[in-house]
Design goal:
This protein has helices spanning 13-32, 83-89, 94-102, 114-119, 135-141, 167-179, 182-191, 216-227, 235-242, 246-257, 261-279, 284-290, 296-307, 311-318, and strands at residues 2-6, 40-45, 49-52, 57-60, 63-64, 73-76, 106-109, 127-128, 146-147, 153-156, 159-162. By secondary structure, the chain is α/β, with parallel strands linked by helices. The chain is globular and about 65 Å long. α8 (216-227) packs across α9 (235-242).
Amino acid sequence: MRISVFVPQYGVIEAITPAFRSFHTANEFLTAYGKAPAFKVEYVGLNEYVPANNGEYTIKTDRLLRDVVSTDLLIIPPPYGPTDAGVRTNAEAIPYIKALHQKGASIASLCLGAFLIAEAGLLNGKKCSTHWAHINEFRERYPNVEVQDGAIITEHGNIYSSGGASSLWNLILYLVEKFSDRDTAILISKYFALDIGRDSQNQFAIFRGQRNHGYPDIQKVQDHIEKSYEDKITIEDLANLAGASRRTFERRFKEATNNTPVEYIQRVRIEAAKKFFEASRKNVSEVMYGVGYTDTKAFRDTFKKITGLKPIEYRNKFARVANEV
């Protein structure tokens, strides 16, 4: 199986090398266990020598992208820096990516590499993952793509995508398993000290409400929720604050923020709870009441739904004081 790792112009070096190294390592493990190597791995790019990050690194490609007539799997790491600039700098690659997919190549995007395959139109009407901090930006730029909030890995047909930062390792392990076997993927996870079972990036996400929608009345409501999240907040009060009927308010709020008012309140409260757990010695009940919840089950269920962890699990994992005890 031929795997072509695209090296974007000014790509993220920490995302470019893992796939290349992992599939080479998979071959070494397969050989060590008396099996034939499964992968032919190469770097491809727009030029023979491609700068990475801010130019601190240079990667020599094995082939130019325009010379790749076919491949089995094309991996797209993220460009470095602002996504707009990354897409513009690598615009020349978009037609080649699209053509290879049309010829049957599977495509895998790592983190913000999803912007490049979306730019090629390959994700229209499909699902994908990307870095949690860029989901709103992605939705605005590519409204015909169903971006999966919090997902580590998304597979739609022969297009694969990963969530943010270290989530790319989970997709790489998934692809190694899919195209060789589970044992090899486990060996690689142990070799690189990776968590092979992680399926959500929600525990790392920081909620920032969508703000660039241009609706002052909705922004006013958002300000109120974020300042008064510990108080009792009703949808009727929020609708009155926006000067609209409840039905109209709920529709416009969802359109503007990608959350219902209830979801927005929950996310603001849970984000506040996370900060309490990270920085204080408060127990679960104290934090629960401090962010506006009075029902223990509701708080635990909502916290788990949004973060992927129970409150006590989150506290034990991220609290500074947990390491002091």
